[in-house]
Amino acid sequence: MTRLLLALLAFEVAGCAVVPKMEKVESGQQNVGARLELPLDGAWNHFQSAQIAPARVWTMEGLPVDELRVFAGVKSGEAIDAGAPEIAGTKKIQFRAGMHADEIVAMFEGLYTKGGSTFQLDKLEPWSFGGEKGFRFEFTFTRKVDGVVNLGVGYGAVSKGELYALLYFAPRLGFFPRNKDKVEEIARGARLKM
Amino acid sequence: MKRRRLLAAGCLCGLGVAPLLSRAQPLEETPAPEWRMPERFTRPDTATDEGGLWAMMDREETRLRRSPFAIRDTELQARVQDMACRLAGAHCPDVRVYLMRTPFFNASMAPNGMMQVWSGLMLRVDNEAQLAAVLGHEIGHYLARHSVERLRSAKNHSSAATVAAMFGVVGAIAQLGVMASFSGYSRDHEREADRIGLTLMRNAGYDPAEAAKIWQNLLLETQANPDSRTPNPLFGSHPAPEERMETLAKLAQANPGGVSKAAEWNQTVKPFLQGWLADEVKRGQREESLALLNRMIARSPNALYLYARGETYRLRAGEGDLDAAVADYLAAANAGGEPAETHRSLGTVYRARQQTPEAKTSFRRYLDLAPKAPDASMIKSYLEEMGT
Predict the structure, then answer these.
(1) Which of A91, B347, B357, B372 is within CB 3.0–4.6 Å of B362 for a Cys-Cys bond?
(2) B68–A149 CB contact, under 8 Å
(3) How much is the pLDDT for B91?
(4) β strands within chain B, DSSP E
């Protein structure tokens, strides 16, 4: 229990302030931002915090057990960790429109490894996301604060110079295998409005 | 929860940077009492407060042993454990070293003999003697039982300890000062641990002149950080660490001799360098990383350091940085033994500059060297896009 609390605190320090603002997300088509449409099925909850901007975080099992992070319309020059507290000597992680898939994944890696956690890329391949030419990747993310080994999957594309991406991770034992297909369904059903 | 707070505070009490952070007072100004190594400590009765502290540390040690961040390498473990053993003398059987993959400069020792050494420290030392300086200092705190005192006093600072605990596990070099302010030892304790550490170094046959150098190197990194110009937790409230370095150097001059064991150390850590350097780059502290890598390249311009510096430049992406990155990647390739990723990064920069032939050559080279790379299919798609 205490380790879980520490993980929650770490989540907060990592730029994800834990405030008791959790809302159920209705099943069905969900609009995220102006252009991204995601088909949701299941008991997802939306965790609201300015500190995770510009992303939004959904969870099925509860934080910090699993996390679906959604980036919808990140503009060139905008930081993917814009809402996170400043850390002396470190710059925000900026998305640039000219980035290719491996650079975008490296950017996400930087986001997850800020505090000494480890991120191992297991696979990166071309993939169609939201009807756009994009990428899909799998990763192993070991969280520093509690030593939990998570598996993750991510999808993304750059459309009209904006970044759209979904990143999901959960403990490799139990939770990730249980929810992976649901996340894959969401990613497959994602649509980017023109 | 209170137990955990206390525990976390205790874990920090042997902070490796503490010697640098504590108020620099010339060691020679203090009387030099005859120091004698104490008898081995016996496990305190569990009914006592110290017994309780030990029990907590034991539980923490179990967690550490199982941690996915533990570096499980027989040779490296044996070398560092042996060093700690020789430094600790008669206390050798009580010192248990845990090597942890954490990219920050730190070592600590708990009252029950559990010692943590982080990869960020092992990356930064030039030789075994420099690591011995830090380990000796931490063992000094242990032998003088400073850590027990700190754990006790942590009971009165639980809220601060909670903060310190978070920084301790989440970590960032700039945050270490905050940790130290909560968990650091008193100036007297630091002076005493410095003295004991140097004595232990000498006894173990290490050159004590290396002790000052490690702090000098760390200072170079910290000063490279633009944020260090404003008062920061590392140095803002402490007198110049230069004074302390001078003092350590003077003390070492009084008893010259000993070995540094640079070649042996560098050979032992060689298999880990690429991973530790990757972790260093991921810290996102570009200026500090460049200061570190410049020093390392001046010492030994090998491909791993050159690639890591190239990555740091590329990711900083300031004016002239991409040119510097390309120069380092090419130098790494020229030196030989470069990571395959050197060519992927070269391809990335060339592609961004629309130097298509060079980009294709570099990506192909990457795939030749790492055909089963996790991103191989993505890189192949780049090549297709550019026209094969």
Answers:
(1) B347
(2) yes
(3) 97
(4) 96-100, 107-109, 114-118
